[in-house]
Amino acid sequence: MIAKTRPEMETLKEHTDELLSRFTVLKNAYYEKIPYEKVWDLLYKAAQYHDLGKVNNDFQTKMHKALKTDEAVSVSEFGHVPHNYLSPFFLPVSDWDLSKEERRILIQAIAFHHERNTQPNVSFLTEVYENEIIYHFPKIVSEMNIKVPDKNQKKFKITNPLKPKDRITEVKDNKETYNLYILIKGLLHRLDHAASAHVPIEVDTDVNIAELTHNYMQENFGSNALRPLQEFTYKNQNKNLIVVAQTGMGKTEAALLWAGEDKTFFTLPIRVSLNALYDRVRNNMNYKNVGLLHGTSASHLDENGDEDWEIIYDQSRNFANKLLFTTIDQILKFPFKFKGYEKYFATMAFSKVIIDEIQAYNPWIVAVLLKAIEMIHEIGGKFMIMTATMPQIYLDELADRGILDNNAITEEFVDESFIRHKISLQQTAIKDDTGRITEMATEQKVLVIVNTVDRAIELYEQLKGENVHLLHSRFIQRDRALLEDEIKRFAEEEENGIWITTQLVEASIDIDFDVLFTELSTIDSLLQRFGRCYRKRELDHDNPNVYIYTEDVSGTKIYDKDIVNITEKYLQSFNYKAISEKEKVELVRKIYSKEELQRSAFYAEFQRAVHKLNYLEDYQYTNDEAQEILRDIQSVTVIPRTIYDNILDLFEALETEKDSSERTKLRREIDKFTVSIPAYKHKQERTPIDFYQTGKDGQKYNILPDVEVLDVDYDFEPDTLAGIGLGEKTEMGIMLD
């Protein structure tokens, strides 16, 4: 009885044993978190019986044909029948002490461990059972050494739960049934996927992330290394935390100290920041089994030169790591309840989730995150929100959902011992004050942040000269990496000049400049920008070090107009005054309060998203649709024509290369020459890549269907780091990542 033919032949017994060995690891690791023997008993039975339907004649015929064996298998008169719908007929449920609901949960977890577009036809399945499946029972007993039903077991005990109208959902069933179903089905998914991929179900189950972090800090910074925020999280590992803390408080280590000995997912919106954290833990803390998972994580792992990068990647994809750095679209998409979401949701039952930089997400995505937090809370996991700016309406929503209970703590950590910023509101456009910018740059490091790429290019052309630099999101990946390295070098060395950039630097790049010139934006965005100026230093003069320009502001379609106007109103009282860290936190609280926002488009969008998610029925979305929403993707990947014409050899090689690992390397090399632009832009100037391969069906397929060539000028000199990148004009041309 063959279960799989790839990557090599595996019998049904071998595959089932692979699941059961991982079941033992899972139970030993998380029994304290899920201390209910009934859960583990049902999961064990699900693992034992989940694939027995593969014994059907049609499946076995296909397996032996693929392997070119001489085994004679009887021809099935029923043709293809999904094996997962047949497997429940092998369950001897009458011999087990199961309630009606437990039987229903077990049968459905097995029947839907593969989600199909066709629903089970109970009459047809019964016919297959009576005329074929029942005759395989002796073989199953002999080879699998398990019980099967006797001839007196009532068929309705299996067929009734298989009826589509009886499928378990959150809306229709009580919480006890629904949560038990999520655990059994979701963990069966994980066991099956890990066994099929031949990767561990869990790695380093006995490792304590908090102690690793604590020891690292003591060895490098002394026995009293922990700061107040870090002491707080270290002591409150068993609580749900909402932490508002300014830059420089040691938030990353604080989060790792909260992780304790629990499985932990650390989420951030910016991939480059995740890469940096992964490197920090793997190299500085010397924890080699840390995981990394996002859209381009394979490239980072490969380029790091780690010999075991493919193992780390496979473990990360299967959530096997004790600590995994990831984007939210990889793990927190289960509120959409797409087919197969149970795997993600069930993992939360014994996990902790850290959500860093929540203010960086749009209202729709925050609504998803708050729903995810509610579900994590419901199923037994823990969460930590860590941010420099926490809008009050989000706290109110968490309170309304009953999440801020006795096991949750909200705490602020700001340093009131010194002032970092003094602001000046300028009632003019930033492009009309370039003289001041140039003058101050002769003796200081000047950072200019505007709201759009076009405004950044416009200012760059105005200020163009020695030691004036430009960084935005419309450079190809190779050139953007060069510029990001250069701005960090510039910030660290004794050098003066001007860097003009966009909100790209708000969260992803750790830099410290002497003075900031910025267009007006929302308060949370502005405070992120403040954090790139006098990052951890006390203001050492009486002049403003932050200039905010309120006229002819670009990016009116990017930022909510109401919040920008409210921000300007509140900032008036701080004009030409120092602003403390406490006052910054208070500003966010007031501006993002329900009282201020209740008539705004921002609040209306947030409320619509909250309402929709609260009443979302199961399986309306696909996995890909959920991921796309969370990635906030409305962009396409392009290669400027002038670049494309110079790398044709890479495409020619990819067109003929047969080896999969070499093809992967070529695709990653090509990725370095791509850039993302808004999907609605330059539709007439975009054409497909003109290289193809022939498939097994004889059809020609584009080798990179998701990448297009863009006939728009691209300007950049890698040797001098000068140029404007893509010269297109767009109002929405800024993407954080």
How would you summarize the topology of this molecule?
Elements: E1 2-4, E2 10-11, H1 12-30, H2 37-49, H3 57-67, H4 83-86, H5 100-111, H6 122-131, H7 137-144, H8 156-162, H9 175-197, H10 209-221, H11 228-235, E3 240-245, H12 251-259, E4 263-267, H13 271-284, E5 291-293, H14 297-303, H15 309-317, E6 323-326, H16 328-331, H17 342-347, E7 351-356, H18 363-379, E8 382-387, H19 392-400, E9 408-413, E10 421-426, H20 434-441, E11 445-449, H21 453-463, E12 468-471, H22 477-492, E13 497-501, H23 505-508, E14 515-519, H24 523-530, E15 546-549, H25 561-571, E16 577-579, H26 581-591, H27 594-597, H28 601-614, H29 623-631, E17 635-640, H30 641-646, H31 648-656, H32 660-671, E18 675-678, E19 686-688, E20 692-694, E21 700-702, E22 707-710, E23 714-717, E24 722-726
Parallel strand pairs: 3-8, 3-9, 4-6, 4-7, 5-6, 7-8, 10-15, 11-13, 11-14, 12-13, 14-15, 17-22
Antiparallel strand pairs: 1-2, 10-16, 17-18, 19-22, 20-21, 23-24
Helix pairs in contact: 1-2, 1-9, 2-5, 2-9, 5-8, 5-9, 10-12, 11-12, 14-15, 18-28, 31-32
Mind explaining what this structure looks like?
It is a single chain. The protein is an alpha/beta fold. It contains 32 helices and 24 strands. The strands form six sheets. It has a seven-stranded parallel beta sheet, sandwiched between helices. The protein has a seven-stranded mixed beta sheet with strand order 12-13-11-14-15-10-16, with helices on both faces. A four-stranded mixed beta sheet has the order 18-17-22-19. Helix 22 links the parallel strand 12 and strand 13 (497-501). The longest helix is centred in the N-terminal third of the chain and has 23 residues, at 175-197. Mean pLDDT is 90; it is low at 729-737.
